[in-house]
Amino acid sequence: MGWAESELFEKTLPDSAPLETSLAPSEKASAIKSLPKSVIVQYDVTKNGQPFARVKEQFKVTSNQYQVNSVTKGLGVYALLGERKLSSTGELNAEGLKPAHFELHQGDNAKKSLLADFDWPKKSLQMTVKGQPKMAALTAGTQDLASFPYQFMFLKTADFKKSITMPVTTGKKLNQYQYKVEGEELLEIDGKPYKTLHLVETDPEKTAAESKQFWLATEHHYVPVRIMMTEDGATLEQIITELQIE
Length: 246
What we know:
Layout: H1 25-33, E1 38-47, E2 50-62, E3 65-74, E4 84-93, E5 96-106, E6 114-119, E7 124-129, E8 132-137, E9 143-144, H2 148-151, E10 163-169, E11 174-189, E12 192-201, E13 211-217, E14 223-231, E15 234-245
Parallel strand pairs: 9-10
Antiparallel strand pairs: 1-2, 1-15, 2-3, 3-4, 4-5, 5-6, 6-7, 7-8, 10-11, 11-12, 12-13, 13-14, 14-15
C-alpha cells in the first residue's frame, strides 16, 4: 500500500506456508457480514523525518466483489516522480479477498506499469512487466500490493500466530511476506488512541538495519495505522491522518 512496496524496497522472501485462517464456517459467515462496505484512509509519509508523500486509499465492497484503489502523491521534489496508482479487483469469499486483476502505474511512464492476472482455476499468475508476460504458480491466499493490507480484516486476534506468512505479487514477482507478532500496543496519533497489533517482518537475509513493521488497528478492522520501513539508510514512516469506515 502506498510507498510500502516501491521498486527501491522490493525484496523476495524465503518460501514458506501461506497464511491460513482458523475460523469455523459460522464464524466465517459472520466475518463477511461484519465487513465494512467502504474504507477510506489517508496517510502522511515521511522519509528520515521529512515530508515525503501523501497516500489516499479506498477499499469498497459491492455484493461479493471488492475493489481497492490507492494513490500516492510525492511532496516537494518527490512530486516530480508523478502519482503512483495501485488498483486491485476481485471476489470476496469466506477466506477473504481473492484478487482477479492488479495494476500499478507510476506517473506517465508506461514502461513502469505492472499488471497481474490471477487464473485461480489453473492456479496460474500472469504478470506483465514492460509489456512482457511472466508466469508464476498461484497458491491459495495470494494477494497483491493493493489488496494484502485489507486481508488482515478477516482475522481475529486469536488467529494471528507467532508467525504470519502471506504470498503477495508486486506485479513484477511473487514474494512471501513473513511477519512475527510482537504483541498489542496502544498508539496515540493526533490525540486519538488506537489499540494495535504490532507486526515485524522476519527475513534472515536482512541485516539489523533493515526492517518493515505494521501496526494494525484491532478495533477498526485491522486497518494499518502506522507502517515503518528502514532500508539503505533511509527510514520511511506512514502515519494515518484520516479514517472513514461505513
